[in-house]
Records
---
Amino acid sequence: MSLNMTSAALRRPMPVRDLHALRTSRAMAELELRRQQAIMRLARQLPSTLDVHAMFSLFAGIAGDAFPFDGLRFMRAAGDPPFAWGEEAPHHAEYSLRLNDEGLGEMVLMRDRPFAEYELHVFEDLLAYLLYPLRNGLLYQDTLLMASIDGLTGVGNRKSFDESIQRELARVERYGGELSLLILDMDGFKSVNDTHGHVVGDALLRHFAAVIKATARTSDMVFRFGGDEFAVLMPETGHDGAARLVQRLREAMANAPMVHGDLHVEPRSSMGLAHWRADTDVTALVEQADAALYADKRERRASMSAA
């Protein structure tokens, strides 16, 4: 009798509510196991790199194994280019990442369907293992950046120029494409510096660099080449595109005088362009731009003398 009752009980369908609870319980148990596995992987692998992009790719891949999402986006500060992994999706969970009151940036988790509360708890647990490696990576990134920036003008320094032009030449030699180089110097800078002093001279250099940066495209790279000489490296840009930048720079300088107290100085510049060819190395490209620069300088002096 007892056996028959048990048999009948086993054949009776499980109520939907109980079945849902069982499935939820199993899903939660599986998620907890994946959470623990992800934490162990993050703790072991994240400290192995200081490259922030590599770090986020690693974090996104491990977190994605714990529970499904479509995309991840991180931005250190407003206006900075974001790191993006995966795809944009309509449902967002946003986090302001902080460590010991230090703001590290903003992260957005994205999916095409809403997140369950327990999934967000898991993600937040995983985020805790990102914070210290991220802070270290950002500090390292800042150190590298400072080593490549000209302290006076805020554009790339000569070391950064040398590394960038080697990299871009290697790229076009391997994959093809175009590359142009513009070298500029300020006409009459020595006279301004000698007459008004180094404080005004430094202010003029900063102003000159700011005009170049504001006029160049986001894909262009601006460097202080040395003294009052600057360089603009233009990937995927041929003669026509580079010539348009030269024209925009001349117009910008004519319309943007430096004001220092009662002194107004219009930055004037000689410019020389060079374009990559299959037989062009770094030295040849720089020499071509230099030759064009001095030809432009002679022409401008002759024009001023005739006037």
Note: The CA atoms of residues 274 and 284 lie 9 Å apart.
---
Amino acid sequence: MTVQDYIQSNRSRFIDEWASLIRIPSISCQPEHQPDMVRCAERWVELLLAAGCQQARVMPSDGNPFVYAEYRCANPNAKTVLVYAHYDVMPVEPLELWHSNPWEPSIRDGRLYARGADDDKGQAMIQVKAFEYMVQNGLMQCNVKFIFEGEEEIGSPSLEKFITVHKDLLQSDIILVSDTTMVDKDIPSITTGLRGLAYWQIEVTGPNRDLHSGHFGGAVKNPAIALCEMLAKLIDDKGHVTIPGFYDKVLPIPAEERRMIADIPFSEENYRQAIDVDALCGEEGYSTLERNSCRPSFDICGMWSGYTGEGSKTILPSKAYAKVSCRLVPNQDNEEIAALFVQYIKELAPAGVRVEVTPLHGGQGYVCPIDIPAYRAAEKGFEVAFGKRPLAARRGGSIPIISDFERVLGQKTILMGFGLEQNAIHSPNESMDLDVWEKGIVAVSEFYRHFA
């Protein structure tokens, strides 16, 4: 039986099983959903066993439980694939913006709408159903291990310790992840790179209390103005980050990769109009797609100070705050950049204020070679499923766990993602294109054929 025939004959069951996961509100950031995290993990165990795993179990961690399952084929020399996914989801608020119940899947216009439809229950089901097809039809010539976590949406705080403790259990020849996007429904792509991240909160303190702006304005340094002055100096007029040493380890974009990026269909006009800005900007000498994927960046994520309520209150505030972040590229170490930033921002502080910086989050970037057998197998899988060779595309986002896998387990990860920008992950009305979902099952099945 072909994989397409298998999908069609089991389509209703596939969607019912997918829906059974979606109905469990596994929101990792809200403590009241702790029982739901356990329920979702247990449901995955049931589905993995039914799909053909010889063993599956819920495993405890310092936080939410992990799901582990494995299948061993008859060939003693078979390669081993480790499949990673996450079963936790984001909160659904604001509820009034949803067009249907986020916990009850709704199919309309060729899409399944629900929280977790894409991220990551829908994409995880692609992996499990491709595996099921290969096993149930006697085609699987790889050993397969599954590791699903319940804390990805809160930064995977338990994952590094878990994979370190269970390093021997999780050994494989390649790691396979479906938690990224394609360029477009009709433009398949494999994510070959992710940016790292460093994130801080800045606190600037001036006087020991809020002051009357009439009595003290012009005589005392205003912390909010000081903060604005400091932040404005972090980017120069050519779009470069000015932190000393920031670019020391940044590698140039290879010429071949710049050619591949140039081949990606992209309209700057559409991009600009979609976000309603009248101009684009960024680091001099790079295209928009290079700036938002292959080059590092600095952003102010939030600022607050003084009185922001209704009406007026004439004060000179005591404190000002900002949350700021850098997206980093592979070879930049997030801890090293964090230290450089703290030193530099304090040097920028003018007389009359004190500065404290608190690092909040960080992670390393990642690049996948496009000449390894597993990448070629994934490329072939996309080609069979979508009828065209996929583009190799770096992404500007961060998945710090991918670099953790490489550092702890010593293996590269293939990012076979099937999401689309219009799937609205993390937002109201999250959805998954059902045609792409089915093609994803075909692509992963073909990956196993060619990787074996």
Note: Residues 34-51 form the longest helix (18 residues).
---
Amino acid sequence: MKITMIGAGGWGTAMVSLLAGTNPDVWLYCRNPEKAARLRDTRENTPYLPGCRIPESVRITSDLEEAVCGAGCVILCTPSMAAEETAAAIAPYLMPHAVVVSASKGLASHGGLRLSEVIGEALREKTDRIVALSGPNHAEEVGRGLPAASVAASSVPEAVALVQDIYMGPSFRVYRSSDIVGVEYGGALKNIMALACGVLDGLGLGDNSRAALMTRGLAEMTRFGMHFGAKRETFFGLSGMGDLIATCTSTHSRNHAAGLLLAEGKTAAEIVGGTDMVVEGIRTASIVYEIAEKEGIPMPITSEVHHVLAGDYTPRESVEHLMSRAKKAETEAFLVGPEC
């Protein structure tokens, strides 16, 4: 079966290298013809994933029609803000009933819709086999073949089974889930918590504060997801707790690195302007904050991250706000509705 990766960033590059180990017909689409030519010649994506060799068997193209036509599985690995546009672009070339995997972590720009929702709407005439793939998967490690695991979620069991089949190998395990809502929210909201952990580490506040923030952050993520119908247990799995641990503690994490810069006094605009990488947590924090305010969902950490990014508070002021909140019972963290 032909498998096509749409997006030649670090994660897309790592995944094609992984997939080529067990699948003979893997394609990588790079929209920039000059970059595609360099990747074909050098077999290394130096700006995004240096040191990761792209196997010779991977076909690299800047022609979207060539990339998508005949593919039984198309994996979308673009920044979250481009998911809807990318899905619409592949629609004319997509085979009916093909499996489409959303491998990005974030929310759509308008209305805070999950990526599978906007992808599904764009492809409604072609396929309903939409799968979300999420978990603690840093491209730098997956690209090197280090052991990792992820979770694939969909309302279509056959689609999840196919994703398990093509991804599973000696260094990568995929677990299945029917809770696509929880899996997508876990992957998106953990980036907000990674920004917050970066701030704490940048301020030198220690391991205790980081552990407390991650724990309360998981409670906050769970509360938000359950409000929209996600299962509580999903957030204690790979796309919730697993990804939260990796993103909040790793030197590979862009969001944690952005939090360190916030602690130094850098503004959100300065951080975004100073990198070619996408820091998803910066977008997601504002989107989730607005949804939480509208829906009446208590999200104290998200609120403080939003206000720091907006320049309303300094990082130290936000820490003081969190530490001076009213007394709560720990189990109140998982209540949904006015009780929390």
Note: Residues 105 and 187 are 5 Å apart (CA to CA).
